[in-house]
Design a protein that fits this description.
Residues 1-21 form the signal peptide. Helices cover 40% and strands 13% of the residues. It is of the alpha/beta class and 425 residues long. The chain has two domains: 3-153 and 305-376, 3-Layer(aba) Sandwich (D-Maltodextrin-Binding Protein, domain 2), CATH 3.40.190; 155-302 and 381-422, 3-Layer(aba) Sandwich (D-Maltodextrin-Binding Protein, domain 2). The strands form three sheets. Strands 7, 8, 9, 10, 11 and 13 form a six-stranded mixed β-sheet that branches. The protein starts with a helix and ends with a helix.
């Protein structure tokens, strides 16, 4: 697949309205891509509230008077991903530094669009695996070559109303895991009081987490999808059953509003929704995504990661590359502002900061066992899976489509798109 063809590929890493509001759902907050001699042009998809946090970080860095100051260019996510192959192909106005979602790195690498970090990391010995969350760090290395450095690892979990959990199943969170059996028990008890047990939210992270728990893999060979199987059918059927049993919110209801108004017990959502949830007038907590078992070693929490990459650019000097590395090293030890956006920075430096460890989302980072639950679905064609799930998964949940039709359609659509992409090679 050439770079021009890549411009037409939609690989949506954050397809929900909630996620888009956090990292790419609005309009551009600043423009321009031309780079001056002593300036690092930095493209990122942070135009929601988290964009303010990123701007604050960059302002703080620039006040340290570095040799190369950072110019923040926040773009709507879909616009940014459309622009990237266009500018790289043209060789003009290529950003010096870019944030992309981890799921895109394999495709950018295969299309020969990325510079590597291998030659420059030797001068920055603290930018290493030991200092980052493993899942976020490992995604940046392909075939022994490093193509990215992680900013964060943002994941999916369950916000819960503490009072309602205590009322309907007080032992549910003794182990910081809520199982699907416990979800069902809570929902059946709360339904009698007109309280929804659990919200039906973004299908992709909910289903992929459960699919992996069932032993499913998106691909076995890195290319061919493996989606029409028992693991996917079980995952989809489970959510359809919960809906049928009235454990969950109903078609057309707004889970966010029900949770914030105290009318729902469990709210599966991303950690980036913390700024919204903290407005609730009741005590709430955040825990792992619903699991099939209470064994933490088998838990799966869907995750993604914003990663720093450098697209190939013949005009990027060695001095500017060094300036970029100075910025990344500063970010490694100055990421508290990013945590305030509801994110989990990938740097482990923050584990010594009580202000961070008091934040609810740090539950996913505060131990190696919890870190191991974070799973980035880095299938090269993950975006095609996401497109189908976003378009059809709720139809199965709400009884408008059969499970067999769903999984067969998922397999066919993804396989057809993958074949089309590879036909031009």
């Amino acid at each position: 697949m050439n770079i021009k063809k890549l411009a037409g590929v939609v690989l949506v890493a954050g397809a929900s309205v909630a996620l888009m509001a956090g990292c790419g759902g609005g309009s551009s907050s600043s423009g321009g891509s031309s780079s001056s001699k002593n300036e690092i042009v930095f493209w990122n998809p942070f135009v929601g509230e988290d964009g303010d946090n990123m701007k604050a970080m960059i302002d703080a860095y620039n006040k340290t008077n570095p040799d190369f100051k950072v110019k923040n260019v926040s773009l709507k996510e879909s616009d940014m991903y459309t622009k990237i192959p266009t500018v790289v192909n043209s060789g003009k106005n290529i950003p010096d530094l870019n944030i992309v979602h981890a799921e895109r790195i394999k495709q950018y690498k295969d299309n020969d669009m990325l510079e590597t970090y291998d030659d420059v990391l030797a001068d920055y010995p603290e930018i290493k695996a030991d200092n980052y969350v493993p899942e976020a760090w490992n995604l940046g290395e392909i075939d022994g070559v490093r193509y990215s450095v992680p900013l964060d690892i943002h994941s999916w979990g369950v916000y819960y109303n503490k009072e309602l959990v205590d009322k309907y199943l007080p032992t549910a969170l003794d182990d910081n895991i809520i199982t699907f059996d416990e979800v069902e028990e809570i929902g059946k008890k709360s339904e009698a009081d007109g309280i929804r047990g659990m919200g039906i939210t973004w299908a992709k992270p909910n289903l992929l987490s459960l699919y992996a728990q069932e032993g499913g893999k998106l691909t076995e060979d890195g290319t061919t999808p493996t989606l029409d199987n028992d693991a996917m059918k079980k995952a989809v059927q489970l959510y359809a059953d919960l809906y049928k049993e009235k454990v969950t919110t109903r078609d057309g209801e707004d889970p966010a509003q029900l949770f914030l108004s105290g009318k729902m017990v469990l709210y599966p959502e991303g950690i980036w929704m913390r700024n919204q949830v903290k407005e609730a007038k009741f005590d709430w907590g955040l825990t792992n995504s619903p699991q099939l078992t209470d064994d933490l070693s088998k838990a799966v929490n869907w995750a993604s990661s914003h990663q720093f990459v450098m697209f190939k650019n013949k005009d990027r000097s060695e001095e500017k590359t060094k300036g970029i590395m100075e910025f990344l090293e500063w970010v490694r030890t100055n990421s508290l502002e990013w945590a305030k956006a509801g994110q989990n920075p990938a740097t482990l430096d923050l584990l010594d900061n009580s202000e961070y460890t008091d934040m609810e989302q740090s539950v996913f980072i505060n131990s190696p066992e919890e870190q191991a639950t974070l799973t980035i679905f880095d299938y090269k064609y993950n975006g095609y899976v996401a497109e189908y799930l976003d378009a059809h998964a709720l139809d199965v949940t709400f009884g408008k489509m059969t499970v067999d039709d769903f999984t067969a359609g998922l397999q066919k659509e993804v396989a057809d798109k993958v074949a089309k992409d590879n036909s031009g090679k």
